[in-house]
Specification:
The protein is of the alpha/beta class. The protein has helices at about 20-30, 40-45, 65-80, 100-105, 120-125, 155-165, 175-185, and strands at about 5-10, 35, 55, 85-90, 115, 140-145, 165-170, 195-200, 205-210, 225-230. The strands form 2 sheets. It has a 5-stranded parallel beta sheet, sandwiched between helices. A 5-stranded mixed beta sheet has the order 6-7-10-8-9, covered by helices on one side. The protein is globular and about 60 Å long.
Amino acid sequence: MTAPGWVALVGAGPGDAELLTVKAARLLAEADVVVHDALVSSDVLALASPDAELIDVGKRPGQSPAQGLINVLLLRLAREGKRVVRLKGGDPFVFGRGGEEALALALEGISCEIVPGITSAVAAPAAAGIPVTQRGVSAMFTVVTGHRQHGEKPVNWAALAQAGGTIVVLMGVAERGVIAEALMAGGMAPDTPVAAILRATTSEQSVTRCRLDALALTSVNSPATLVIGAVAALNVCEVAAGAAYAVG
Ligand code: SAH
């Protein structure tokens, strides 16, 4: 008798393979098939069994497999009794369309296990020494997408500007000028600190800092996470000698 199949929707973390959960590593080693996104690092994929089939369904500009086709692929593999890891960058339910995939399987009577991952929304700031909350500086953080499909409700940037706290923008590089304008129109100060963290937790990580009113003209590549708010000026891992930070 062969082992029964299963489907697990697994978060791969932000890039560094050591930031994978223990459970994700175990399921990867056990899987017959790994269906993964473009952002999943090769170090993480290397943890799959050498016999496993790796299927890249990554969304890249100009050649994205339709979400429906990915759902159909997962259904087919599940029905074949395969042990399937659907591997997504960061956390599968943070702008990963993991909810849609789990729902598509559930509608066909197939339940999948959800394995959370460390989202880039907190890992990317952390990798730059930026705490998303900091006593006396920021008591909340909002995670928002900078990328809206046609027909989707627009983000209320003015409300976010008024809410205060830290704003973490995923998929916001292309629209960063528009986002900055909208936040400033909503009352956010032009000198609000911004940090853009590119390829966080990988060997290619780089951090760019600027003011909100300079964001449009500041060169930032993708994939990057934008952090907007007072904490973006911090690097708590490299405090310059003599700099006074309030602690306690
Ligand atoms: N589910 C993922 C997010 C998917 S949306 C998560 O939880 O992290 C993809 C966006 O995430 C990118 O456009 C970028 O804004 C951000 N991102 C993903 N990996 C990143 C990394 N290593 N460094 C910086 N930003 C990253």
